[in-house]
Design goal:
By secondary structure, the protein is α/β, with parallel strands linked by helices. The protein has four helices and three strands, in the order αβαβαβα.
C-alpha cells in the first residue's frame, strides 16, 4: 500500500532571530500566549519592561480570534492538547505557532 501523506518536515521552518524580528516589525503580529510550565515565566518577561515586545508592535492578546501567532511555552501534555487545538482552530488564517523552551520542543524531562 502506498503512503500518500506529506512528510511532517514540510511544515517546519528554520530561521534566525534577526529574520523573525524583521518579520515582526513588518507585520506586527499579535501573539496569543499559551504558558503551561516554567517557560511561561520567560514568555511573560518578553512582554515586560526589560525586553518589551510592544516596541516592535507585538501585543499579547487574550483572545485567539484576535491573534495571528500562538506562543506555546511548556510541555503540551495529552490533557492540554485538546485545549490547545481548540484555541488554534479559533485563530484566523494565516496563523503561526512558535514553540518556546526546551520542554515545548522536545518534551523536557517529562517525555
Amino acid at each position: 500500500m502506498e503512503n500518500k501523506s506529506k512528510s511532517s518536515t514540510s511544515n517546519i521552518l528554520f530561521s534566525t532571530i534577526d529574520q523573525v524580528l524583521g518579520w515582526a516589525r513588518a507585520g506586527s503580529p499579535w501573539p496569543l500566549g499559551f504558558g503551561i510550565a516554567c517557560c511561561a515565566i520567560e514568555m511573560m518577561a518578553t512582554g515586560a519592561s526589560h525586553f518589551d515586545l510592544d516596541r516592535i508592535g507585538m501585543f499579547f492578546r487574550p483572545s485567539p480570534r484576535q491573534s495571528d501567532i500562538m506562543i506555546v511555552a511548556g510541555t503540551v501534555t495529552l490533557k492540554m492538547a485538546s485545549r490547545l487545538r481548540r484555541l488554534y482552530e479559533q485563530m484566523a488564517d494565516p496563523k503561526y505557532v512558535i514553540s518556546m523552551g526546551s520542554c515545548a520542543n522536545c518534551g523536557g524531562p517529562y517525555w
